[in-house]
Amino acid sequence: MTVTRFAPSPTGRLHVGNIRTALHNWLLARKAGGRFMLRIDDTDAARSREEYVTAIRADLAWLGIDADGEERQSERLTLYEDAFAALKTAGRVYACYETAQELELKRKIQLGRGLPPIYDRGALALSDAERAAKEAEGIAPHWRFKLDHDEPITWEDGVRGAQKFDAATLSDPVIRRADGSWLYMLPSTVDDLDMGVTDVLRGEDHVSNTAVQIQMFTALNAARGGVQHLPHFAHEALLVGSEGKLSKRLGSLGCDAFRERGVEPSAIVAMLARLGTSLPVEPIAERAALIETFDLSTFGRAPARFDDTELERINAAIVHQMDFVAVSDRLPAGMDEAGWHAIRPNLAHIGEAADWWRLVTGPVQSGEFSDEDRAFLSQAASALQWSEDPWRALTSALKEATGRKGKALFLPLRRALTGMDHGPDMGELLPLIGESEARARLENAAAD
Ligand code: GLU
């Protein structure tokens, strides 16, 4: 069974890039009829906050990205301890004593010589006596995972195709700090293994982590008696702003901002589901259609451009399709299904419904009219007859009686009846205004 996961660190709110990763993992699992897990990567006790965990859950719920289970790394620390012990026994982790300043100096020297800043494995060269001396000085070690330099690291990436890394071009990663706390690399591998994650789909900023983690998977599999478990990996191109750069703005653009702007979660989902793929971004409100068409092979390698104008376009188109029942609790008091249908095509956001509804409930300010138009409007007031389609009846009668057509016919009527030059379809609006109110508005405008 397909198992995917979304693994945010609760050190901040979700932004549009994280949301996209979450969504894609959800779509992948739903399409395969599998499971989608939320994993809270909270091993960094100093930076993780409970309020962000709560906000992450709330944001995912708002977006309709439902998880089939939740795990927290802070509750799984003994598992990491066990894995660490197993890797130590297998000779795959080693103690290091360099200070941050020493490491920085090494890096500078390497860069100065035009060499890549790869950790030189200085700690491996220490003799037992030197190590004992460090310990005697009271220096607690931090720990690195020892990469195997003999085998090239390869995988078939779901987005990027065949990948190959020479382990010797990578630093042995620090997996545990001197205070015993865990860095991201090992806990994530242990969890993906123990939770039976079959597909790791994440941003391409994780490509070199994958190279390292593949060796960790292999080492842990071996330590556990040779069971082979290795997920499929796929790395999607990053999201950039419409200006074409990785922008700060996108890094802080999240659900709160969208909600405030009146963007519907289904618009965000429709857009992010397909952004960066060869499929067209369309206002698809049904999740089933997005799930059905989700396919990693449609993902491109070029950065995906997030464009607010496009989001607004998708949002408006989605609002125009929304059913009354789905929105009724967000509409102004008294607005019924017919009102929603009349006004819906004019909305960019549902919150604007109240402004348009005022055209129905009144009062309206119709403004100034020429003498000729006033006479016309007075004629309209007497011609008004209530029927199935009073607008059609009124305009045909007036057309016949006055010879007016087009703008000269419609605009004074619209203005007198709504106080606006544009707006919802008058055929739908007039029945909502009602006969006596409509007549009163026409008479008022004629008298002004
Ligand atoms: N907590 C990691 C992050 O937010 C998870 C990366 C992963 O998907 O493995 O970058």
UniProtKB/TrEMBL annotation:
Main location: cytoplasm
Superkingdom of the source species: Bacteria
Residues at which ATP binds: K248
GO MF annotation terms: ATP binding; glutamate-tRNA ligase activity; tRNA binding
Transmembrane feature ranges: none
UniProt cross-references to InterPro entries, sorted A to Z: aa-tRNA-synth_I_cd-bd (IPR045462), aa-tRNA-synth_I_codon-bd_sub2 (IPR020751), aa-tRNA-synth_I_CS (IPR001412), aa_tRNA-synth_I_cd-bd_sf (IPR008925), Glu-tRNA-ligase_bac/mito (IPR004527), Glu/Gln-tRNA-synth (IPR000924), Glu/Gln-tRNA-synth_Ib_cat-dom (IPR020058), GluQ/Sye (IPR049940)
GO cellular component, one term: cytoplasm
Motif 'HIGH' region positions after renumbering to this chain: 8-18
Domain Glutamyl/glutaminyl-tRNA synthetase class Ib catalytic: 3-312
Pfam entry (one): Anticodon_2
Catalytic activity: tRNA(Glu) + L-glutamate + ATP = L-glutamyl-tRNA(Glu) + AMP + diphosphate
Enzyme Commission number(s) from the entry: 6.1.1.17
Regions annotated as coiled coil: none
Class of the enzyme per the UniProt entry, highest EC level: ligase
Biological processes per GO annotation: glutamyl-tRNA aminoacylation
Alphabetic keyword roster: Aminoacyl-tRNA synthetase, ATP-binding, Cytoplasm, Ligase, Nucleotide-binding, Protein biosynthesis
Chain location of the short sequence motif 'KMSKS' region per the record: 245-249
Compartmental location: Cytoplasm
Its job: Catalyzes the attachment of glutamate to tRNA(Glu) in a two-step reaction: glutamate is first activated by ATP to form Glu-AMP and then transferred to the acceptor end of tRNA(Glu).
HAMAP family, per the entry: Glu_tRNA_synth_type1 (MF_00022)
Subunit comment: Monomer.
Protein's recorded name: Glutamate--tRNA ligase
UniProt source species: Qipengyuania marisflavi
Gene encoding the protein: gltX
